[in-house]
């Protein structure tokens, strides 16, 4: 298993691209226009993540101050909205999200060894106070959406003695959601501060395109093909998907594709049109629409779809639409634009 | 620690001196052959052949040591078997660079080096300190503990623990964590579960787990011995097969196919293997995941706490492929036409930089190895990745950063040699 979210920045892989114009550091050159739009569209996504994360932290605090079953459901809903806001910008694997492994802090995944459960049990059983500092030093498996999801959705945990709203689990939930909210706010601010750097470097045009390519590849291979049993040993397993506890694996895919459509596609379409790839640009837009046409019908738990061969067909049609979109962007458009993929963190097992 | 972050020019100077010194020791006739893509690929096959031969030699020693342990389970024989295992890892880890790019190795290696494993498939585990892969129906099957096991509704007869049976049990029930064979299965049978978490100490399996009669601890000592016997025999025969694949002057093995293909393909495999192991696998999966999640479940050699050596010799393997040099277990040096010489023909500056970066990586991995093996306050990898261990984290990060840097130059070397596409084939697009 390889975590494709690993963001290791390879400066050299950005060199020598046809998309790089001759005079670097000149924001007036054409490609800066695309980056201007990307910067603005991604900022919108990041600001949404910051707002939803703050709403989650506030809701978790309210619930833990006066627990109720209604408050619990509201907290679950706030978690889902913030998590989906993250899914929309998850493809961005460069810039401020690389600082301090923020991407992993938001979502440590995949977690085949169930590290989240192990870390939760360790923290809840101990008697060291659960503080923001404790969460900050406890590693990425503690600091993000999967930990909050575990506390809010895990069935075994919710039937156990430490289930919410017991004191320590509430303290952990509040500390973790505040950590997420802090990261959401910093990320949006840092992205704003990153603007001149981003607009000034032609390299970031390729980097942005590559991030979308990687996002689509992860979606196709890891988030769909692997749980569907189309890779490796062929076993269907919902545990290979993300967000299986909240049954939001497919809703998260919907959100990621919507996020790419909102934050990546506008400038990318413009770029393709400017390169006289009008037909390809149209096909890609159509490809996005075809993937999204599977929803909201497919906004449902993945496990029952894996268990029933008839229902599985719904996943297959989604998968086919996703592979067609991925192929258009990662093969055809990348070749037309001369975007070369170098080594990436997925070159492992 | 300061040494690891010194300015690049200094690192360049030192490493250049080191690699010059190394080159001057080359005296074999092969080294005088001019480097062309074809001779470089041929020598690459020779490096692989020598590496797998060494892995086989040391695996046979391990097999003999475990045979002695099984026949006569004394503390000294257990210790000797552990030392033989550690020695066997030195050449094997240097061959991992051949995995990426050579499908014949990648398809085969799971049976030898798959990791992480759910050890409860094999033998008894302490349940409250055992975290297995989610959804793995075989995670607690305990093959040693019974003559038939049930995995996900399927009942299997495991009465006779033969090498073939164990090989067929790999990935049973569709879980990659069901690893019944290979180095890590043997490691578990020698060391046992490491129950120390982030604290000092590795697995503490008592030698009486192999004792005869009433002295047997934890039950099924006879079957445990049979298992160890079968799994070490399998390791030897698997390595024999791979040695034959890389042997020279054969007409029907992998080496002959590689040599018959376009030399560009071979060079691409070399660079792809170096880059993939550097970045995605070693820097990423084996170090960064473990560090950032503070997860000793993601520690490579978790039973023996030999992870630092696994990483170190992985790094050495990457350097070997570039320099064309391999120091064999008997101390002799294999050398010949190298990628380094090929790159230097057209871009000596890039060659010097990549050589320096490979040296810097080995130095950073050397710091990790030295700290783990230090007489005073040793800090093995599982302690380095503990929450709040700033010194440990900086050692691991130093190695990660060095590997990331060299990967950038590996990509440049590929471009320098006219190879654009280093990405793996997208075979996955077919459906």
Q: Give the N-terminus to C-terminus distance of chain A in angstroms.
A: 6 Å
The secondary-structure element order of chain A is HHHHHHHHHHHHHHH
* Class based on secondary structure composition and strand pairing of chain A: mainly alpha
The top-level CATH class of chain B is: Mainly Alpha
Number of domains of chain A: 2
Tell me the distance between the termini of chain B: 50 Å
The CATH architecture of the largest domain in chain A can be given as: Up-down Bundle
Element string of chain B (H = helix, E = strand): HHHHEEHHHHHHEEHHHH
How would you describe this structure to a colleague?
The complex is a heterodimer of chains A (349) and B (431). Chain A has helices at 31-65, 69-89, 102-106, 115-125, 132-136, 145-153, 155-158, 167-193, 195-200, 203-225, 249-263, 265-274, 278-292, 303-307, 309-337. Chain A has 349 residues and is an all-alpha fold. Chain A folds into two domains: 29-200, M75 peptidase, HXXE motif (A middle domain of Talin 1, Up-down Bundle); 202-339. Chain B has helices at 8-24, 37-71, 75-95, 103-113, 163-169, 183-191, 221-245, 254-260, 263-292, 307-323, 339-346, 348-373, 381-384, 390-416; strands at 148-151, 154-157, 326-327, 333-334. The model of chain B is unreliable at 1-29 and 423-431 (pLDDT under 50). Chain B has 431 residues and is mainly α. In chain B, a hairpin with a 5-residue loop joins strand 3 and strand 4 (333-334). In chain B, helix 3 (75-95) runs antiparallel to helix 6 (183-191). Chain B has one domain (2-117, 179-420): A middle domain of Talin 1 (Up-down Bundle), CATH 1.20.1420.20. Chain B has 14 helices and four strands.
Describe the SSE topology.
The complex is a heterodimer of chains A (349) and B (431).
Chain A: H1 31-65, H2 69-89, H3 102-106, H4 115-125, H5 132-136, H6 145-153, H7 155-158, H8 167-193, H9 195-200, H10 203-225, H11 249-263, H12 265-274, H13 278-292, H14 303-307, H15 309-337
Chain B: H1 8-24, H2 37-71, H3 75-95, H4 103-113, E1 148-151, E2 154-157, H5 163-169, H6 183-191, H7 221-245, H8 254-260, H9 263-292, H10 307-323, E3 326-327, E4 333-334, H11 339-346, H12 348-373, H13 381-384, H14 390-416
Antiparallel strand pairs in B: 1-2, 3-4
Helix pairs in contact in B: 1-12, 2-3, 2-7, 2-9, 3-6, 3-10, 5-7, 6-7, 9-10, 9-14, 10-12, 11-12, 12-14
């Amino acid at each position: 298993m390889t975590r494709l979210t690993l963001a290791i920045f390879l400066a050299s892989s950005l060199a020598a691209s046809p998309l790089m114009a001759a005079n670097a550091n000149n924001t007036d050159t054409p490609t800066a226009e695309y980056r201007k739009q990307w910067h603005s569209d991604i900022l919108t996504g990041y600001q949404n993540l910051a707002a939803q994360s703050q709403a989650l932290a506030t809701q978790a605090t309210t619930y833990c101050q006066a627990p109720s079953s209604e408050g619990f459901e509201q907290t679950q809903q706030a978690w889902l909205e913030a998590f989906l806001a993250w899914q929309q910008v998850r493809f961005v694997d460069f810039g401020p999200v690389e600082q301090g492994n923020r991407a992993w802090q938001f979502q440590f995944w995949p977690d085949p060894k169930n590290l989240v459960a192990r870390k939760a049990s360790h923290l809840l059983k101990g008697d060291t106070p659960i503080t923001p500092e404790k969460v900050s030093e406890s590693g990425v498996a503690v600091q993000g959406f999967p930990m909050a999801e575990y506390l809010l959705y895990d069935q075994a945990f919710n039937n156990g003695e430490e289930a919410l709203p017991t004191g320590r689990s509430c303290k952990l939930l509040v500390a973790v959601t505040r950590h997420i909210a802090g990261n959401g706010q910093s990320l949006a601010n840092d992205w704003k501060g990153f603007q001149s750097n981003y607009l000034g470097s032609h390299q970031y045009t390729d980097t942005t395109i590559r991030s979308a390519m990687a996002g689509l590849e992860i979606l196709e291979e890891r988030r769909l093909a692997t749980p569907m049993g189309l890779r490796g040993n062929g076993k269907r397993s919902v545990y290979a998907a993300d967000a299986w506890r909240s049954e939001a694996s497919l809703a998260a895919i919907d959100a990621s594709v919507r996020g790419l459509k909102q934050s990546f596609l506008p400038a990318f379409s413009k770029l393709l049109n400017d390169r006289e790839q009008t037909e390809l640009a149209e096909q890609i837009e159509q490809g996005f629409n075809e993937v999204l046409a599977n929803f909201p019908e497919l906004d449902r738990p993945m496990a029952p779809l894996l268990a029933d061969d008839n229902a599985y067909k719904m996943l297959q049609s989604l998968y086919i639409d996703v592979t067609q979109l991925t192929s258009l962007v990662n093969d055809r458009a990348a070749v037309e634009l001369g975007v070369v993929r170098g080594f990436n963190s997925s070159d492992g097992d | 620690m300061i040494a690891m972050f010194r300015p690049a020019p200094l690192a360049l100077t030192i490493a250049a001196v080191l690699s010059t010194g190394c080159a001057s020791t080359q005296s074999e006739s092969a080294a005088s052959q001019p480097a062309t893509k074809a001779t470089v690929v041929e020598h690459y096959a020779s490096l692989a052949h020598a590496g797998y031969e060494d892995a086989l030699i040391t695996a046979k020693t391990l097999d003999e040591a475990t045979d002695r342990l099984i026949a006569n389970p004394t503390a000294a024989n257990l210790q000797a078997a552990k030392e033989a295992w550690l020695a066997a890892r030195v050449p094997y880890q240097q061959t991992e660079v051949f995995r990426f790019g050579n499908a014949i190795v990648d398809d085969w290696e799971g049976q030898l080096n798959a990791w992480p494993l759910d050890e409860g498939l094999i033998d008894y585990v302490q349940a409250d300190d055992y975290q297995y892969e989610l959804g793995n129906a075989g995670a607690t099957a305990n093959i040693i503990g019974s003559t038939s096991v049930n995995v996900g509704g399927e009942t299997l007869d495991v009465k006779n623990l033969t090498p073939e049976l164990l090989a067929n049990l790999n990935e049973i029930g569709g879980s990659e964590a069901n690893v019944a064979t290979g180095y890590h299965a043997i490691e578990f049978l020698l060391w046992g579960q490491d129950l120390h978490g982030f604290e000092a100490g590795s697995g503490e399996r008592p030698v009486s787990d192999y004792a005869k009669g009433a002295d047997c601890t934890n039950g099924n000592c006879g079957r445990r011995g049979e298992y160890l016997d079968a799994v070490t025999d399998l390791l030897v025969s698997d390595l024999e097969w791979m040695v034959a694949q890389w042997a020279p002057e054969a007409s029907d093995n992998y080496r002959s196919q590689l040599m018959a293909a376009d030399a560009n393909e071979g060079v691409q495999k070399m660079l792809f293997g170096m880059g993939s192991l550097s970045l995605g696998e070693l820097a990423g999966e084996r170090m960064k995941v473990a560090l950032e999640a503070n997860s000793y479940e993601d520690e490579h050699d978790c039973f023996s706490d030999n992870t630092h050596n696994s990483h170190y010799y992985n790094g050495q393997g990457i350097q070997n492929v570039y320099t064309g040099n391999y120091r064999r277990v008997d101390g002799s040096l294999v050398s010949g036409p190298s990628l380094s010489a090929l790159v230097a023909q057209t871009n000596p500056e890039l060659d010097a930089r990549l050589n320096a970066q490979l040296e810097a990586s080995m130095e950073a991995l050397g710091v990790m190895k030295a700290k783990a093996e230090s007489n005073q306050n040793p800090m093995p990898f599982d302690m380095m990745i503990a929450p709040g261990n700033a010194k440990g984290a900086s050692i691991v990060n130093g190695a990660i950063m060095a590997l990331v840097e060299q990967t950038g130059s590996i990509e440049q070397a590929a471009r320098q040699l006219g190879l654009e596409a280093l990405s793996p084939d997208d075979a996955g697009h077919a459906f």
